[in-house]
Amino acid sequence: MSINLVLVQPWVALVAGILILLFPRLLNIIVAVYLIVVGLSGIIR
């Protein structure tokens, strides 16, 4: 089963936004994880 990143990104952004509103200190962690995932997915393709 292939995961389409175009469909996943809006959900990730929504969840990350909610978490940042609830826990502002998570901003650094969420941004770092997001950048790592996007970078790895770009390298693997």
TrEMBL record:
Protein name as catalogued: DUF3096 domain-containing protein
Classification via InterPro entries: DUF3096
Residue stretches spanning the membrane: 12-40
Pfam families: DUF3096 (PF11295)
Keyword terms: Membrane, Transmembrane, Transmembrane helix
